[in-house]
Amino acid sequence: xxxxIVYGIDLSPPVRAVLLTLKALELPYEYKEVDLASGGHKRxxxxxxxxxxxxxxxxxxxxxxxxxxxxxxxxxxxxxKTDALYPKDLLKRAGVNQRMYFDASSIYMALWNCSRPxxxxxxxxxxxxxxxxxxxxxxxxxxxLGENLYITGDTLTIADxxxxxxxxxLPAVLDIDPVKYSKVTAWLERLSKLPYYAEANAVGATKYxxxxxxxxxxxxL
Length: 221
Ligand SMILES: N[C@@H](CCC(=O)N[C@@H](CS)C(=O)NCC(=O)O)C(=O)O
Known about the structure:
- By secondary structure, the chain is of the alpha/beta class.
- It is built from 8 helices and 6 strands; from the N terminus they run E-H-E-H-E-E-H-H-E-H-H-H-H-E.
- The chain folds into 2 domains: 4-79, Glutaredoxin (3-Layer(aba) Sandwich); 90-219, Glutathione S-transferase Yfyf (Class Pi), Chain A, domain 2 (Up-down Bundle), CATH 1.20.1050.10.
- Helix 1 (13-24) packs parallel to helix 3 (68-79), helix 1 (13-24) runs antiparallel to helix 8 (197-215) and helix 5 packs across helix 7.
- Glutathione binds next to helix 3.
């Protein structure tokens, strides 16, 4: 079996969600860094693989897949020794999917709407409306967690990887109040104990947070 190739950059939350999944499944992979700052994702050879020009993108023996949520689901379905990380039971799977779509459409979009104007136009101001969207995503994540250990219940799933990779990156814009968002804080703390969490997520998240924080001139709260 040839190794899965991952195109990515560890500053990227969705790339880190895929790395968490690969590590959890103990799958070997080859990492090919795509330098977004110099337009590596807009080069013809990359666009030929993924016309959307986004990372993460994987090449699994010639099959190209992108979007972190699609990749994580695929990896567990294809390579998981059990379905624990992405249950086959329809209702459980629907719960995991809901959280992953919430990440894609709400948490990640809230972060992306702050950071994209910086990367594309050099905008260093984040408006109150945008920080408000981040706070709303945090509030909902806290509500979803409730008394559960993980984002969809009492077991770890790929929805935890996708949501946590993004949520742990939100301090790039604002601090996560540990009292107001106590469930989020405890959940991230719980995940940080996974043996592969630091390498797959925390190192990249810290780099991303430090870099973005050094660039903002005004974050309106
Ligand atoms: N929904 C996608 C989002 C991927 C995405 O937006 N990745 C960013 C890096 S964090 C990217 O490739 N941006 C380049 C661009 O949009 O031009 C996923 O989950 O994979």
